[in-house]
């Protein structure tokens, strides 16, 4: 007798799953039709992709000495941009957290500003900063800083909103001010997640700085653009391998640090 409701629940759950799957497939089909994606053209020209890989199969290893400095510059840009963005994002995250700021007007204004920052594409930001400070890594650093600020601030305030409210209420009952509450009740609960998000954003910025170089924002992206423009795919292969090694090393170090912190 007790198994009938269980089977009925499982049947309803199964039917809901089938329904959502059908809706998802329809959305994919409609998106493909409305965007006029030609899947046949992609597969018919797939041979060109393998031809390009064939031209990159013999990397110009002498080019390695040239890309070392731009790779280091790319890492430095990502580190500076991520750090600057994080430092500015922390106070904004506290002001946007629902459990710390009770005023809907203040909290709503801060969140609207953060949404506005995240709306700006990183390539647009790079173009703006190149126009302001000129071609070079400075434009890349400021672009990554603004991008990091918009991304990290959202991750931070969402983390703050999920903390245990017990320590906050205890300090409020003891007469602590807002700064003391944040320092002794909030920060100890979120510091590990904050560091994890910082490392995650740093990984993203290393990859993003490669693309920003196409607009003159410094880093290895400038050399990648040059090699592709001159059809030196042997040099392009060296750059891609260098970027891959950097990303793998940073990802490994980040995972080790996350495991120790969390």
Automatic annotation (TrEMBL):
PROSITE patterns noted in UniProt: ABC_TM1 (PS50928)
Highest taxon of the lineage: Bacteria
One annotated Gene Ontology cellular component of this protein: plasma membrane
Keywords: Cell membrane, Membrane, Transmembrane, Transmembrane helix, Transport
Compartments reported by the entry: Cell membrane
Region forming the signal peptide: none
GO molecular function: ABC-type phosphonate transporter activity
Spans traversing the lipid bilayer: 17-35, 77-101, 113-135, 181-200, 206-224, 236-257
Topology term for the membrane: Multi-pass membrane protein
Residues covered by the ABC transmembrane type-1 domain: 71-254
CDD domains: TM_PBP2 (cd06261)
Family membership noted in the UniProt record: Belongs to the binding-protein-dependent transport system permease family.
Cross-referenced PANTHER family: ABC TRANSPORT SYSTEM PERMEASE PROTEIN P69, PHOSPHONATES TRANSPORT SYSTEM PERMEASE PROTEIN
Name by which UniProt lists this protein: ABC-type phosphate phosphonate transport system, permease component
